[in-house]
Structures are given as C-alpha cells and as structure tokens.
C-alpha cells in the first residue's frame, strides 16, 4: 500500500489533513443545525464513536448563529455545509466555524466569493470544494452526456481556479457519486491532477448493509492505492453507525489504532453450540471498546482451536460449551450460558 504523504496539508482547527499517512474520519449531523440540543448530543455521540470532524447544514441564519453554541459545547472541529448563499458562509465564519464546504462557482459574483475568501484567509479556515456527479454544471453535463470522471475533474478545476486566482490554497477536494466505479475512477484521476488533500466518500450509499459494501469496495480500493486524506462513510439513519464501517475499513489497512478485531466462523454442520447470539452481542459490545484486541469466536473443534490460538482472546466451541483461550493458552472450559459475560470480562481486563 502506498503512503499518502505528498498532498498539501491543511489544518481544521487542530486537526491536520493531508501530507501524512493518516486518514481523518468525518461525519455529518442529521438534524437542523439550529436545534442545538439535538445537534450537541449527536456530536458528542459521534466523538465517542471515533468521529474527528463533523459537518453541519447551514440553511439559514439561525443555523449559522447556532454554530457558536454548538462549538462551545463540543470538542471536534465543525464544518459548515453552504450552498448558493455567500452570506451564510460569512455568518458561519463569524460564529466560529472551522471549515467551509462550498463550491465558489455557485455562490454568486466574484465580489461575493472574495468576501468569503478574505474572511477564510483572516481566520485560517480551509474550504472544501465538493463535486457531486448528480449536480454538475449544465454545460459539462451536456458536453459529456452523463456523469464522468473527466467531467467532474473539469468542474473541480473551474472552482479551484477561482480560489487560486485569489491566492487561496487551503483547499480540500471531494468527488462523490453513488456509482462505485465512478468514485474509484474520478478519485484516481484527481490524485494525478491535484495536490490538494482528497476527502473520500460514496454519496447516497444507502442502508448500513449497502453502504458497508459500496464504501468498503470504493474507499478500500483508493486507500490501497495511497489515495485519500479524510473520509466519510455515508449511511442512511444514525450517523454514529458510519463510524463502525469507517473504522473497520481503516483497521484493515492498519491506519487506525485502538479498534478491536472480531473473528467469527461462518458456522457449518460441525457447530455444536448456538454461536450467533454470542457473536452478535460481542460485536455490539466491541463497538464501545477502544483497544487493539483481537477476539475470536469459533464454533467447532476442527478449525476452532487453531484459529483461536492466534487471537488475543477466544472461545473455541464444543457441545454446549467452549474453551476460553488467552494468547494461545487454554484457560478454562465455559458453559454456553456464561460465555458472553466471561468474554466481556476478559476483553475489559486485556
């Protein structure tokens, strides 16, 4: 796997993005930003789950003003999502936002863009330009006939030029699509055309199951190529669930620490105890654990003991019971009804 150390580096408050072999996890709140009570609680939940920056929709002035209260009651950097109205970008900046997501070409005249850029320079606030395959400029869509990697790159070049002409380079780029292959193609091309940090994501990826597949294929392919500096896994529903997928993707490439690894056999006719309820509960439990621990839950005496010995903590099942194994050594024999609590204790004591 290539390392991501050749992109420019930007700072989002105290978080560095780009220029290092690290990918920053981002998410987005699902409530109206002016609903500060719900937003603050959601951000705190995201922080606990491993989120490092969070984006807020800024649809009106009430949303922009709410940023001040939200920032005072949370810890991670905040990103304002701005569309069309440059005044909302200015209001978000004045209320303490740490990063702006906008497309400078769709917020009005050059004079309006200059006002936003001037403030961003003064406050040291980076701008993420977000190119979505479903909302390309009319002439680009007509030129290529459909969303293409080439068209998305051309769109980004237009927006980037607006900022570069104003001597502004604290830029991050994203190229999102719900089409996995298009995501892979456009980010690969973007990594060759731009030296700005890239924010990875498959947009509108769907439910947890669908998103985990689409995001793992697209983002995993790009990460293996050394592409990407920050990422969001898009999931319909509670954004905390995005952290589960994001952290596991990064865990596969050894790009994140303190994330447990769960190994469980798929079960077959050799399985002699009811393994699924144990796997399900331990999987949920491990989402609350911040440790580099590998836990194996194996269902039979054929492959179980061998696989289990390579884990930090493991159960190798037999008939309605299992062997508890720690670092390759059998510790004790446990009845099935005690496995869950015993495993949890071993994990917490590890």
UniProtKB/TrEMBL annotation:
It catalyses: (2E)-4-hydroxy-3-methylbut-2-enyl diphosphate + oxidized [flavodoxin] + H2O + 2 H(+) = 2-C-methyl-D-erythritol 2,4-cyclic diphosphate + reduced [flavodoxin]. Residues 261-348 form the IspG C-terminal domain. It holds the Pfam family GcpE. It is an enzyme of class 1 (oxidoreductase). Keywords: 4Fe-4S, Iron, Iron-sulfur, Isoprene biosynthesis, Metal-binding, Oxidoreductase. Residues 7-246 form the IspG TIM-barrel domain. Binds 1 [4Fe-4S] cluster. InterPro entries: Dihydropteroate_synth-like_sf, IspG_bac, IspG_bac-typ, IspG_C, IspG_TIM, NO2/SO3_Rdtase_4Fe4S_sf. SUPFAM superfamilies: Dihydropteroate synthetase-like, Nitrite and sulphite reductase 4Fe-4S domain-like. [4Fe-4S] cluster binds at residues 265, 268, 300, 307. Its cofactor is [4Fe-4S] cluster. GO terms for molecular function: 4-hydroxy-3-methylbut-2-en-1-yl diphosphate synthase activity (ferredoxin); 4-hydroxy-3-methylbut-2-enyl-diphosphate synthase activity (flavodoxin). Its EC number is 1.17.7.3. Pathway: Isoprenoid biosynthesis; isopentenyl diphosphate biosynthesis via DXP pathway; isopentenyl diphosphate from 1-deoxy-D-xylulose 5-phosphate: step 5/6. Converts 2C-methyl-D-erythritol 2,4-cyclodiphosphate (ME-2,4cPP) into 1-hydroxy-2-methyl-2-(E)-butenyl 4-diphosphate. HAMAP family: IspG. Belongs to the IspG family. This is 4-hydroxy-3-methylbut-2-en-1-yl diphosphate synthase (flavodoxin). It comes from Breznakia pachnodae. The lineage of its organism: Bacteria, Bacillati, Bacillota, Erysipelotrichia, Erysipelotrichales.
């Amino acid at each position: 796997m290539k390392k991501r150390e050749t992109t420019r580096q930007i700072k989002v408050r105290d978080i560095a993005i780009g220029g290092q072999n690290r990918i920053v996890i981002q998410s987005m709140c699902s409530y109206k930003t002016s609903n500060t009570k719900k937003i603050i609680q959601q951000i705190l939940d995201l922080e606990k789950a491993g989120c490092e920056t969070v984006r807020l929709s800024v649809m009106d002035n009430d949303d922009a003003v709410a940023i001040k209260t939200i920032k005072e009651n949370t810890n991670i950097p905040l990103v304002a999502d701005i569309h069309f109205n440059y005044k909302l970008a200015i209001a978000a900046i004045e209320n303490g936002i740490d990063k702006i997501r906008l497309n400078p070409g769709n917020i009005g005249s050059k004079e309006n863009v200059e006002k936003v850029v001037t403030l961003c320079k003064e406050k040291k606030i980076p701008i993420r330009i977000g190119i979505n395959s479903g909302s390309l400029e009319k002439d680009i869509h007509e030129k290529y006939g459909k969303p293409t990697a080439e068209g998305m790159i051309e769109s980004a070049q237009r927006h980037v030029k607006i900022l570069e002409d104003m001597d502004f380079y604290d830029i991050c780029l994203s190229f999102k699509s719900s089409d996995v292959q298009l995501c892979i193609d456009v980010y690969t091309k973007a990594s060759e055309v731009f030296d700005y940090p890239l924010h990875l994501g498959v947009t509108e990826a769907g439910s947890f199951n669908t998103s985990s597949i689409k995001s793992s294929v697209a983002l995993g392919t790009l990460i293996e190529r050394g592409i990407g500096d920050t990422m969001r896994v898009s999931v319909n529903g509670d954004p905390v669930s995005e952290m589960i997928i994001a952290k596991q993707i990064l865990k596969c490439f050894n790009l994140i620490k303190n994330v447990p690894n769960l190994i469980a056999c798929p079960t077959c006719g050799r399985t002699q105890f009811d393994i699924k309820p144990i796997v399900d509960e331990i999987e949920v439990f491990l989402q609350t654990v911040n440790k580099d621990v590998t836990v194996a839950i194996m269902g039979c005496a054929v492959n179980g003991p061998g696989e289990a010995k390579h884990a930090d903590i493991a159960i190798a099942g037999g008939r309605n019971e299992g062997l508890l194994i720690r670092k390759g050594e059998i510790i004790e024999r446990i009845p099935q009804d005690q496995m869950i609590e015993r495993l949890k204790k071993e994990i917490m004591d590890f």
